[in-house]
Please model this.
Amino acid sequence: MKKTHIAALVMMVLASAALVYSSKDLSTFSTFEQAELSGDRVKVSGQLDKTQPFQYDPEVNPNFFSFHMIDDAGETRQVIINKPKPRDFERSESIVLTGSIHTDGHFQATEMLLKCPSKYKNEELALRNQVKVVASAE
Amino acid sequence: MDTVSYIGEHLWLGTLGHLTVLLAFVSALYGAYAFFKGFRSEDTLWKKAGRAAYWTHSVAVWMVMGLILYAMISHWYEYDYVYRTVSDDSPMRFLLAAFWADQEGSFLLWMFWHCVLGLVMMYRKPRWSMGTMATLCLIQAFLSSMLLGLYLPFGSEDFKFGSNPFILVRDVYQAPIFANADYLTLIQGRGLNPLLQNYWMTIHPPVLFLGFASMSIPFCMAIAGLSTGYDRAFLRPLLRWSLFAAFIFGLGLLMGAAWAYEALTFGGYWAWDPVENTSLVPWLVVVAGIHTNLIAKATGYSIKTTYAYYLLGFVLVVYSTFLTRSGILGDTSVHAFTTMGLETQLALFIAFFAGLGLYKYFFGGRDIPKRPTEEAIYSREFWMFVGSLVLLFSGILMTVSTSLPVYNKIVELWNENHVPLAIDDPMSHHNKYQIWIGIFMGLLSGSAIYLRYQGRNWSSYRSKLLTSFGGSALLTTLLTYGIGRTINTYTWQHHLFLYAGLFTMISNLDYLVRITKSNLKMSGAAFSHMGFGVLILGIMFSGLNKKTITGTPFLQGDFAEGGGVDKATILIEDLPFYQGEYWMNYVGDTLDGHLRKYQLEFKKVDQDDNVKDQFTTYPSALYQQDFSKIAALNPGNERKLLYDVFVAAAPNEHLQDIEVAQKVEEELKYLSYLMSPGEVSQDSFWIVEVGTPLFDKDENTAHASHRDTTAYDLTFSLPLTFTSARTEEKYTIHPGLAVKDAFVYQQPEVINDLGIKVKLSEEIFSSIFTEEANLDYEEVILKPGGVATWRGFQIELSEFNRDISSDQYTPQEGDIAIGADLKIINSEGLEFRTEPIYILRNAQQFSIKSYDPANGFHARFSKIDPQTEMMTFKFAVDERDVEEYEVFIAEGMPRSDILIVEANIFPGINLVWVGCLMMLAGLLLSLIVKRRASVT
Model:
């Protein structure tokens, strides 16, 4: 057997091993209930509970954002993330959180991904002479 | 709706465009056939036919592009592509960016470069070029088919074959507006996504797509090479084209990284985003191919492997296209294009060329000579080959991880209950594996460069090599130790990574200086490898030692439980705040067009207050077209030689989005206060002194909105001076009201420190300004210079003005127009002037009224008797019996003078750019040297 073939073979074995090993980096989507039972860091997807107010007051703490999410199993929980509130949060169609259940029962998220409705697709036709408004309190 | 005959459409362009797309498709297919025939028979007639077909094809592609651009420039919104990418106020400088922002345009850009490269390739030696062109024509046929827009009757639904860029907007959307024959006068384009209105969007895609296109040439050449008798001379042009591809493609990737870094959308230059990964992989593979190509050229080993790499490189480009454009990546990527509905067609595209490559690899090239002996362990080719395998290995790991959405999709075909898998944290996942690639690459490229092909004169060369090798290793150890003490290296893997980077840097530098000396021919490789080392160093500095200077320096909550570090902080306007060694001050903001720029001053001082570092940075917010919300927040950056400071800033919530502002307004609880000028009102938090009402419209007046004299017909504002009960600080504001064309506008004021919003009751208007119909005019007759007293006003007709300028009066031939300058002293002894105008036109008398808002005095100049010099005036005053003004005050108003700020320092970021540029420069150098070698 040629040395280059051996080198190639070693690489193949290493690659397969790395890929098998990396399967522990994979996770499936979980629910709040499963997260509470396992206590693990998980991904939970769901929707913003629009009936509950969310709490973000940058003047008090710009790194505290709290809201309620309904997970895919229908359970609602308070979610806290120590980051500024993302733009377009209210418009999100669904939310994917990474984090774990805190001892006091809320879900402490470290990462948050928002799926926003595609702004540039299913929009109504933009009309001429729209009324211009200025988002400013000045 | 079919019965409506629309007005103003330019349908000829679409018809012409669609036919041209068809022509491009057909001529590409014919070109493939002709070149294939020519390649087989070496018949010059077929060659000529092929060239003619390719010229036809190229002109057709350019014409399609030209037609779309023409429609875009003309704002012909009847075309969906124009509607999607352009709006009435789109700046022309983003025309090209808008053109390739969407799917069809970017396909055309890709095809455009294929045409250019093909036209160059076509006139090379026919023995190779015709085979190459045959495959290139096939690729172009596939790409053209993406624009065909034909619906073929297969299956239950018609199969969509291509997406026509000339489709009409009324064929895409179902909307009642299309019942109007003149719908075009009603609609306006949506315009380019504000995030893409950026100079990078103008330059990054053309370079990247030239990179994509140039990857096709080695593929096509490999197919040709495997289809005909072996010729060693073929390895030369193959290498040159591949060097060109690696250079341009690499440049495109680097530009993407620079854009990502500048916009800071991912907090850095590389985020292991699926689109980034699938673009990097073909580049790694073509670089691997260049290495084996060099081996093949020098020794005759690895010829078929070289072909394999080039075949794979292009197939991976198509795979990357498939991932980006099929919508399969869903939400795992920021780059996702809107879906085109061409998944099946794209999958066929990959399948066809992967199949062609596999077939040629296994059944072609049987006459490629095999060397009887194998590579010596101390030969350069052996370690270069291993290096190419490491590159491939890196690509495989990345591709497999990135293809998880594809895996999910395939499993779903069989098992509907499949729960999609996702990588928990892509950044750490990829970093964990790719760091080893970096280590191997560093060590290999640092040592293999010293070796010689086929281990020539190994016995005499060995000692010299060991000295160099040992020297580099020793120096690297010292440097790693030194740098490891100044920056954070975290783990032993990172130490090793740093070592590998420094090692390849030093040994390649050594090689460059001591061994190649003036020999340019070999310095390209050494230069690139050195660049790789510099890049590793840059990654260690900027990535691993990135520092957030805002936020709390300690951990909020338990880090292990996922609390994380607080990164953002609040800056209040004009209130310097100390964080992470810097005094930060939010100075103010300015609005220019749709862009609001925030001025932030940073100052670093030592213990004795000496300024160590000082700069001003301008993060900004880009509003949407209608100003209803902020479309994009751009960070400000301060670039220095040794580090960059990036500052992301956002205004308070209610200033970002008009919907939030409306919600805040709805939730405010206004209390009514009656205030009289000169009096004092009181609350538990403040005391307010009421000033004299202002009616002025001029550039000096206190309320900012009243400074533009043409903005409103009438204005009113009430100066209020608040004193904080807590701090005794005074704040003077001017809440106002204004009228324009019978609309009353509220002009509230906010005192951020008190958290209050103050506005005036609209009722005030009718109580101080009497409507014209309700005015009780009285006639007063005056002679020039005469004085009359009327209702406490002493009125003097001082002079006449014949040079009339009034926005209510347009002079006509034969007019007589006279203004009467009235000097009036009111009951309080204050003087004011007003000038009513008398006009005689065609023997009819008119008058233009004048009004003094502060005194509520209306004056008309109605008659002139030329004989007696008696002037008749009509005067009236507003019925003002206002003692008190109703003012509304709400507490709990969010501050509008704060910024939510996050500032990061990227140390040594310039090493990343320098490293990448050196790698590219090395490729370019090799390309130039190889070109020159081929010419001479």
Notes: The beta strands of chain A are 26-30, 42-48, 65-71, 76-81, 94-101, 107-115. Residues 37 and 101 of chain A are 9 Å apart (CA to CA).
